[in-house]
Amino acid sequence: MLPTAHPLAVLFGDSFKAQSGKCVSCNRCKTFCAAFPRLYRIFEEADQSPLRPPFEKGREGGIPEKQPPHPDPSPLSGRSEIDRDLREALGLCSLCGQCELRCPASLDLAKHIMKAKIRYAESGLTRKERLVTLVDSVGRWGSRLAPVSNLMVNNPLVRRIAASLTGIDPRRRLPRFARQTFHDWAETRRGPTSGSSSAPKGKVVYFAGCTANYFDPAIGRAAVAVLERQGMEVVVPAHNCCGLPSIGIGDEKTARSLHEANLARLLPYVEEGCKIVCADCNCVHMMRNNAPFLWPTRETNRLAEAVTDLTSFLGGLALQGRFDTALGPVSGDIRYHYACHARTLRIGNETIDLMRSIPGLKIDYLDTFCCGMGGAFGMKAKTYDLSLEIGADLFKNVRNYRPDRIVTDAPLCGRQIHEATGVPTLAPVQLLAEAYGIPTAGQ
């Protein structure tokens, strides 16, 4: 039985209370999410606990009559046990955004959870939590020290020792650092990679993201080559992490610093009329959905309007008759994993349609939902087992379908699926590069 007041109204105060009356108690948010069942349980237990007064229902429903509308969750006194449970429950949310997509009342659930994460983080983050905000630093030094760094991070003994310092589960196989990052390659390359010598038909900016830059630069090389195959001049300005890992733990200060650094580098191109394209739907989701909500400035909104995922950009060229259809055949049974952030961007059909333009390719959806990776969520020792449990249905379907390969717009999801099933995974643009016969795609 649901509490009389929507449970999240207590945590989020007036900002959510205005929306909570729209809740129809359909329980959808409790059926596909790891965080919501626990959030409901905490509030149901708190409603009957000795610590009830801070959560006592007022006339408005859910907000204490004699308490401030935004109770500070940081002091661990009086209701420390409830606060601890709430913080752990919020840690189960990867900000995938599916609660908003599936909520029939269209409540901004994920955005309010993001705000709640920020409020809790203001009371301090642990060393292990802050590690995920250092993606650029870890990636930069890991690549510089490769292959030694790869030998170390994937040594079972080192992983067990490091687990206590990093919080990363020793069973998780970490991605290998690329000796030459994508940015290094982009700075030193000369001329178009696709062999085109004609004058460019337009200019586009490519945003690689951390995964393609430090761990899987083949995605970035394929993206540049395929874009140049369409006659585009591809610009790769220096850029850093989009900020999603930082905001995932509530570290708004770091996330905003990363965002503003990217703004300074990308906005001049936006003002020229360039699109910012990215082959990682997680980065696109952060720049298009999260950033404008957190920092609704003119500059942020301008960037959000210019950012698009790579398959949508290529699909737009196809609709205009500007997409190079000289694709060679690619055989095999391919399945498409519709990642959570790809769903929030609603790009699955465009990706599938683009892949179906490849001759001889058999491709269809996987009939499942989340893979359970959720960025750092699937790395942590606390949630590693849960991440595999969330993705269990997906892994079962992969084994039943037995596809030759799986494509997904979320590279980290691809790693989770490959590790769990052994089936090779790749980005859609890599499959396109293969069909074009571009050798840089798989290097």
Map the helices and strands.
Layout: H1 7-12, H2 14-20, H3 36-46, H4 80-90, H5 98-102, H6 109-121, H7 127-131, H8 135-144, H9 148-153, H10 156-166, H11 182-188, E1 202-206, H12 209-215, H13 217-229, E2 232-235, H14 244-248, H15 252-271, E3 275-278, H16 281-294, H17 298-306, E4 307-309, H18 310-319, E5 333-337, H19 340-345, H20 348-355, E6 362-365, H21 384-390, H22 392-401, E7 405-408, H23 411-421, E8 425-426, H24 428-436
Parallel strand pairs: 1-2, 1-3, 3-4, 5-6, 5-7, 7-8
Helix pairs in contact: 3-4, 8-12, 12-13, 13-24, 15-17, 16-17, 18-20
Chain oligomer state: single chain
Number of domains: 4
**Average pLDDT for all residues:** 84
Low-confidence spans: pLDDT under 50, at least 5 residues? 49-79
- β-sheet strand percentage: 5-15%
Cα distance spanning the termini: 55 Å
Helix content: 40-55%
Shape: globular
Number of DSSP strand runs? 8
- Give the helix/strand class: alpha/beta
Structure report:
The structure is a single chain. The protein is α/β, with parallel strands linked by helices and 443 residues long. The strands form 2 sheets. A 4-stranded parallel β-sheet has the order 2-1-3-4, with helices on both faces. A 4-stranded parallel β-sheet has the order 6-5-7-8, with helices on both faces. It has 24 helices and 8 strands. It is globular, with a radius of gyration of 23 Å. Helices cover 50% and strands 7% of the residues. It has 4 domains: 7-121, Orthogonal Bundle (Fumarate Reductase Iron-sulfur Protein, Chain B, domain 2); 128-166, no CATH class; 182-318; 326-442, Rossmann fold, CATH 3.40.50.
